[in-house]
Amino acid sequence: MTIVMAATIMGLLFVQIMYMEDMMRMRNEQFSETVQRSLYFVSDALEQDETRYYLDKDLNEAERYQFELGDRLPSEITQPISADSKIGGSATAKPEIGGGNFRLSEQYENQQAVLKGQYLYQKGLLNEVILSILNQASDRPIVERADSAKVNMYLKRELESNGLEVPYEFALESPQQGVVYHSAGYEVTDDTPRVYSTVLFPKDPESKRNVLKVYFPTQSDYLFASIKFMIPSFAFTFILMFIFIYTIVVIFRQKKLSEIKNDFINNMTHEFKTPISTISLAGQMLNDETVLKSPTMMKHVSQVITDETKRLRFQVEKVLQMSLFDRGTATIRLKDVDAHSIIDNVVSTYRIKAEKFGGHITFDSLADDAIVNVDEMHFTNVIFNLLDNAIKYRKEDVAPELSIATRNLGEEKLEIRISDNGIGMKKEDLKKIFEKFYRVHTGNRHDVKGFGLGLAYVSKMVELFKGTIKAESELNKGTTFIITLPLFK
């Protein structure tokens, strides 16, 4: 189910991203097509302006030529031919052959002659304009053929007519002069968005072709604005994905806590069951008359009851203390104590336990100053827990060798090193051993029991004492715990 939900959310996100990319690509293509079309119309408008320029120029020259020719010809030649004039040039009246029909035919021929003359005149004028454009246009300065104000006007008009009201910058480049002119904000760099260009007067020789270049500083913002409606969709998708991930994390965390709780209950049952069974057995022995008659046996049984009761009380106290620390209601009573004295008492107690397995404990008090500000009971429990771990995680076929050493780090700190030759730990376990309920996997060994609270308790206590603790270990070679505490000044 989790995999299906994850695949669904990832698929939805993938579809949204692909849709956005397609929209961006399509909008970018539309933008480019609109700009290129606008630039084509600008180039076409400039060509039409140039055609009008040469047409007006030749028309003015033709009118001036006719005016000068009219001044040189005799007046009778230049007089308009009257309706009574003869075709042959005589002044006699025209014979009235056919009456009005003859006059209508003559007028039609005259109109045809006038239209033909105008056509031939305009044709010759256009031919002259075309020849002028082909032979002279490319020699005109480009600033006259396409001045910046006119280019800007045409460019703005065409872009707006195509629905593209976006700020732009433009420049005109010539093969000979480079940048002929440019708008105030025109500055092309490596970070400049796409630059669009078109050739002005494409019929010019290739060596004289001028190029109009345009770019839009806000092109990216313009394109993004067209798809910003997708942002809420992405936001909701990411929120959904975050909620899904958070839900999965909570589920796995609850599963892990459930497993830890079950392990804790099982371990606690075993830890409580063992001393209770021992005390019960000792109680039964007290009912035996032979035991009652033997002072030595009585002392032994009473000592067993006392030790197991202490063990049971210590386990209960450890659980209660961790619970109080979690709630923030635990109380510690700090006072100045001699760390050497406390450690020596704990070592004396644990020396018997180490000798039971054929090992021994050494204590080297190398520190000149060992006065620290701690809670005496909790500090004793810290040393006790670390020694207890060293015994529990010993090698089965090797006698346990435990050592405690102290030394001063400068004039402000006391270092306590507790080392053993036990089974050691992997590097990945070293990162977690101070977490509550975490227990190092010990394979098939069933004699190593506990709640997974010992080292968490030790770490919490050292922290409250304003000190630090760390562990160094190598698998199958042993472990060293290093406690650093501030000296009392």
Give a short overview.
The chain has 489 residues and is α+β, with helices and mostly antiparallel strands.
Task: Record keyword descriptors for this entry.
four-stranded antiparallel sheet, alpha+beta
Bin the helical content. 55-70%
Low-confidence stretches: 73-99, 443-448
Major sheet strand order: 6-8-9-11-10
What is the overall pLDDT average? Answer: 78
Principal-axes shape call:
rod-shaped
Query: What is the number of helical segments per DSSP (H or I, 4+ residues)?
Result: 13
Based on secondary structure, the structural category is: alpha+beta
- Number of DSSP E strands: 11
Please indicate the percent range of residues in DSSP E strands (runs of 2 or more). 5-15%
Work out the radius of gyration: 54 Å
Strand count, sense and closure of the main sheet?
5 strands, mixed
The H-and-E topology, N to C, reads as: HHHHHEEEEHHHHEHEEHEEHHEE
Question: In angstroms, what separates the terminal alpha carbons?
Answer: 61 Å
Write the layout of secondary structure elements.
Layout: H1 2-72, H2 75-78, H3 100-136, H4 142-145, H5 148-161, E1 169-174, E2 178-182, E3 195-200, E4 210-215, H6 219-225, H7 230-286, H8 289-293, H9 295-327, E5 335-338, H10 339-356, E6 360-365, E7 371-374, H11 376-392, E8 401-409, E9 413-419, H12 427-430, H13 454-464, E10 468-474, E11 478-486
Parallel strand pairs: 6-8
Antiparallel strand pairs: 1-2, 1-4, 3-4, 5-7, 8-9, 9-11, 10-11
